[in-house]
Amino acid sequence: MKKICFKPKEVDYTIALLFAIALGGFLFLSGCSTAYYSAMEKIGKEKRHILVDDVEDVKESQTRAQEEFKDALTRIKELYAFERGDLELFYEKLKDSYEDCDARAVQIEKRINTVEQVASDLFSEWEGEIKQINDARLKASSRKTLSDAKIRYKQLELAMNKSTRGMYPVLAKLKDYTLYLKHNLNAKAVGSLGGELVSIEKEVTSLIDDMNLSIREADSFIKNF
Questions:
Q1: Fewer CB within 10 Å: C terminus or N terminus of the chain?
Q2: Residues 16 and 91: beta-carbon distance below 8 Å
Q3: How many whole angstroms separate alpha carbon 113 and alpha carbon 133?
Q4: CA angle 37, 58, 117 (to 5 degrees)
């Protein structure tokens, strides 16, 4: 296997870059957005670059969420087809799927909140900088670019938030099923859950469609921003 060697300067730069990103993220989460942006600017990342990266993060989380919600639906279908076997094992699988979906939903909401904060800060900065332009033609052009960017972002924001809202009814049902099965590990309980299959399958399908729309809007925003 070929040995990969780094020069001292390359190692120093990589460590500094990782440290700056980690420090910046900590500052942002701590509410010190000014210090965060300052730290990121030192490694060449302006608010525009940060926003694109954050949108990518939401897109990545939603892609993973689609698979996790599909897995949860699969668990329910397996329960519906249950005839004999270890019912407690089915419960554990459903519980794991619910917990994965719940954790992912929390992550998605946090990442969308970050996107909204950075977008707000970016557009405010942009507005302020336009006021500093003296040339009327350049000022008008920059204002038009800002207006177009806001329109594209609004489309993305609406799609992200719609898909986020769609997660919670599904999560509520998954939680109900998980707790009910925990309390009633018998074939009769499985039969009771089976009647809900069509309803939750529709909701999961609708949720995945909404996530696909959000992902497409994210791709379009990143491409044109």
A1: N
A2: no
A3: 31
A4: 35
